[in-house]
Write a structure and sequence with these properties.
The protein is 50% helix and 14% strand. The chain has 290 residues and is an alpha/beta fold. A six-stranded mixed sheet has the order 1-2-3-4-6-5, sandwiched between helices. Helix 3 links the parallel strand 3 (71-78) and strand 4. The relative contact order is 0.11.
Length: 290
């Protein structure tokens, strides 16, 4: 098996490929939303740029924001589960939803806002690879509003066998593919859209522009990891030094208490013991009681 250096899950490649090929993005979104491609009359990418100076930002998101038939649709890829992913997705939805209301407009102008997350890890305890969440009343299951929708597609749960007639599974299989052989297996199904996507993948992944963007992204990740390692090492050293200082202070105190105890037994006045040991009168009197 020849492992792919970059995959459809590589966030820089994902963003560049589908921004450069909006026709492919439109077909992908239609499959993910379970709607006919012909039903998409309005389609626009809202954030086509990849800003180089943002690539080093720990919270940089290379998602794709779209307007689809009056709806806001945010499509993102997530490779690793860094924890609280569901909460993070809800936060992203809230930001997109709240930012969509122009100043002075009434609440009924808020658009339906959907977040589609394609994840390469198991997220929910179920067999289904697709989960769709909306706001429902818990007993009657009545829909509160259709303006919130969260789609999750879990790649590890995809079935092994794929039909050349199931466009959703074909698209998701592209994102799941890790090897050249897996891509070629999809190509052999002779689905024109898939072949177009694979050709676009090879074109983008070998371009100098993508390589430069990915270099900056990789450098940012390396710098972040190095900074974290340095911070951890510094913390360890500080902890060792603090521990040594605390040990010295504890040793000094124990020594002072021992000396004070001996002086108390010899009948030395409290003032003189305090001067000799640095202990307080209360501490020395406590020794006399014991």
């Amino acid at each position: 098996m020849r492992k792919l250096k970059y995959t459809f899950k590589t966030d820089t490649l994902f963003k560049m490929l589908f921004v450069r090929h909006p026709d492919l993005l439109r077909m992908l979104v239609a499959a993910l939303l379970h709607i006919p491609i012909e039903s998409i009359e309005e389609f626009a990418i809202q954030n086509p740029e990849i800003i180089p100076e943002n690539l080093g930002d720990k919270f940089c998101r290379l998602d794709i924001n779209m307007t689809v038939n009056g709806q806001l649709v945010d499509l993102e890829i997530q490779v690793g589960n860094e924890g609280y992913f569901e909460d993070r997705t809800l936060l992203y939805w809230a930001r997109d939803f709240s930012a969509a209301l122009p100043a002075g407009q009434s609440y009924d102008q808020l658009p339906r806002t959907l977040v589609i997350s394609i994840v390469s890890f198991k997220l929910f305890d179920c067999a289904e690879f697709h989960s769709f969440f909306q706001v429902l009343e818990t007993a009657r299951h009545t829909l509160l509003t259709d303006k919130l929708g969260l789609h999750f597609y879990e790649l590890p749960k995809l079935p092994a066998d794929i039909s050349n007639r199931d466009m959703l599974l074909l698209w998701l299989s592209l994102f799941k593919a890790e090897t050249v052989e897996e891509l070629e297996k999809i190509r052999e199904l002779e689905v024109p859209t898939m072949n177009q996507a694979i050709n676009a993948y090879y074109s983008i992944s070998t371009s100098s522009e993508f390589r430069e963007v990915e270099r900056l992204r990789a450098k940012a990740r390396h710098d972040e990891a190095q900074a974290l390692q340095n911070a951890m090492q510094k913390g360890i050293q500080q902890g060792i030094q603090q521990g040594m200082q605390q040990g010295i202070q504890i040793g000094k105190r124990e020594n002072a208490l021992e000396i004070a105890q001996n002086l108390v037994q010899l009948g030395v006045p409290t003032d003189q013991i305090a001067k000799a040991t640095g202990l307080s009168h209360d501490e020395i009197n406590a020794l006399r009681i014991h």
